[in-house]
From TrEMBL:
<comment type="similarity">
    <text>Belongs to the NAD(P)H dehydrogenase (quinone) family.</text>
</comment>
<dbReference type="InterPro" id="IPR029039">
    <property type="entry name" value="Flavoprotein-like_sf"/>
</dbReference>
<dbReference type="Pfam" id="PF02525">
    <property type="entry name" value="Flavodoxin_2"/>
</dbReference>
<dbReference type="InterPro" id="IPR003680">
    <property type="entry name" value="Flavodoxin_fold"/>
</dbReference>
<protein>
    <submittedName>
        <fullName>NAD(P)H dehydrogenase (Quinone)</fullName>
        <ecNumber>1.6.5.2</ecNumber>
    </submittedName>
</protein>
<feature type="domain" description="Flavodoxin-like fold">
    <location>
        <begin position="1"/>
        <end position="205"/>
    </location>
</feature>
<dbReference type="GO" id="GO:0003955">
    <property type="term" value="F:NAD(P)H dehydrogenase (quinone) activity"/>
</dbReference>
<dbReference type="InterPro" id="IPR051545">
    <property type="entry name" value="NAD(P)H_dehydrogenase_qn"/>
</dbReference>
<dbReference type="GO" id="GO:0005829">
    <property type="term" value="C:cytosol"/>
</dbReference>
<keyword id="KW-0560">Oxidoreductase</keyword>
Length: 255
């Protein structure tokens, strides 16, 4: 497989960097090709702006429209084009970051904001006018896995833990970004209690990461429901007969 490893941590001597290095070694051992986007090292600009689309700053910019026009005419900025080329090359994406304030670092959010422009990540329709999203789109066929470190202890992460369930914390990324664009998200790999990890804990984390990377091409993705296969009505509301009486986020997964 071709694997794009997107890394978002500012410290090259961090736990995250050590895990990344071990992960890339494992990909080599397993026979996968890989490329990396180290966003902090690249000094990636996370802010959408006129320069992304060669847009005249004297004219009002509608971001979605401007991004699509620039994408389709080849006028996107060079840094965005380079990341889109990596994404096109990849069969799988490993997205690695420390969880900060219940989400990814701003620099990584800005990668998605700038790279997944209209016409690539969204705003895509079939010949019959069907909107292609949530399981369909130009990125269908790719898969992605989150690798994250969390300072909270394991006891605080869960359905009754004060920090919430990990799958719920990552729902906006798994469902609202990956699955929305057609990418199949795999279950995440998380290192909990990261700030207190000892040598034995690090060894266990490396072993767990290697195991997950070993099955990167074969693991079952999170079974999210497709938008266009009959589970949702014309208003994009889940049918009453599916997961009746429930309103939790897990209703958007097939049984």
């Amino acid at each position: 497989m071709n694997v794009l490893w997107i890394f978002a941590h500012p410290e090259g001597r961090s736990l995250n960097a050590a895990l990344r290095d071990e992960g890339l070694k494992a990909l080599d051992e397993f026979g996968h090709a890989h490329r990396m986007s180290d966003l902090y090292a690249m000094k990636w600009n996370p802010v959408v702006g006129y320069d992304d689309f060669a847009h005249d700053p004297g004219k009002r910019m509608l971001v979605a429209t401007a991004s699509q026009e620039a994408y389709e005419s080849g006028r996107l900025s060079a840094d965005v084009l380079a990341e889109q080329e990596k994404l096109a090359w990849a069969d799988a994406v490993v997205l690695q970051f420390p969880m900060w304030w219940y989400g990814m670092p701003a620099i990584l959010k800005g990668w998605f904001d700038r790279v997944l422009v209209k016409g690539l990540g969204y705003g895509i329709t079939a010949d019959d006018g069907t909107v292609l999203r949530y399981g369909d789109g130009k990125l269908t066929g790719k898969r992605a896995m989150v690798v994250t470190t969390i300072g909270a202890r394991e006891s605080g992460i869960g359905p009754r833990g004060i920090h919430g369930e990990l799958t719920d914390l990552l729902f906006p990324l798994h469902h609202g970004t990956f699955w929305y664009t057609g990418i199949e998200p795999l279950p995440p790999f998380a290192v909990l209690g990261a700030d207190r990890l000892d040598e034995a804990g690090f060894t266990a984390a490396v072993g767990g990461l290697r195991d997950r990377l070993r099955t990167l091409s074969t693991a079952e993705p999170i079974p999210f429901r497709h938008q266009n296969r009959g589970d949702y009505d014309e208003n994009l509301v889940l049918r009453r007969d599916l997961a009746p009486g429930r309103s939790d986020l897990a209703i958007h997964q097939r049984d």
